[in-house]
Amino acid sequence: MSRRPARRLLAVMFALAAIALAPVAALPPLGVARAAAQTSYTATITTIDTSTFPEIHALVAVSDSNGLRVPGLNKATFTLLENGAAVTVAEISEEEIGLQLAIVVDSSTAFAKRDVASITRLDHVKTSLINFAVGDGGAIAAYMKDVVDGVSIFAPEGPIIQSSSVGGEIRNALIAYQSKFQTETNLLNLTAQAIDAVIAAPARPGMRREVVIFTSGIDSAADDIVTALADRAKAEDVTFHTVLSARLPA
């Protein structure tokens, strides 16, 4: 069965941000070191509540160039305009909204490849996910927020962990996971499970639902299934990200 590079198919069908990595050893950890000074920020309005109009409530997610939350913001930080005219911001409060996240580790035979240090691609992925959950005890801080975030991880052998809100549980499950490095991994079924996981519980206002897929490619004849998954993800407001473990020439 031929497998199409995931970067092209998933980016087109899921409108994903695909990251080509060859090998996965180049993957920056999902938990990244906090920089002392940041030069760029991103603000995203995730929810607008007009139920008490003319009073309007909005949730705004602000992150730095590493994708980390920017804390300590106040009214002076924001400028609110209505038809070009400044409007007074009555109050700013900081809340932990949380994240519903499902991760697919499509650990096919490509993930058994080792780098010059004899570390497999799968081990690099596991380390990156552990850093996301709990950090590395040093420069890399955990990105996940215990209790607030919910994480599920799926692999061809079965779920690694489901609906956990504790970083330590996720770390232990990843350490225990051993892959069989199968040729056929049924990636699309794993993707469907990931969508099920992030929409299982009602999202709090402003809560993001996201799926991250680590894979080496996808069945080139699966366009119809991919389209159906993409339509479902769009309907449920689920965002996808792919990380491509590129195949190296023999």
Name its key features:
250 residues, six-stranded mixed beta sheet, 5 helices, Rossmann fold, 2 domains, alpha/beta, single chain, two-stranded antiparallel ribbon
Describe this entry's structure for a reader.
The chain is of the alpha/beta class and 250 residues long. The protein has 2 domains: 3-33 and 97-245, Rossmann fold (3-Layer(aba) Sandwich); 41-87, no CATH class. The protein is built from 5 helices and 12 strands. The chain has helices spanning 6-14, 121-134, 167-176, 187-199, 223-235, and strands at residues 3-4, 17-21, 41-49, 57-64, 80-82, 85-87, 99-105, 150-155, 158-164, 208-215, 218-219, 238-245. Strands 2-12-10-7-8-9 form a 6-stranded mixed beta sheet, sandwiched between helices. It has a two-stranded antiparallel sheet with strand order 1-11. Helix 4 (187-199) runs parallel beside helix 5 (223-235). The protein is globular and about 60 Å long.
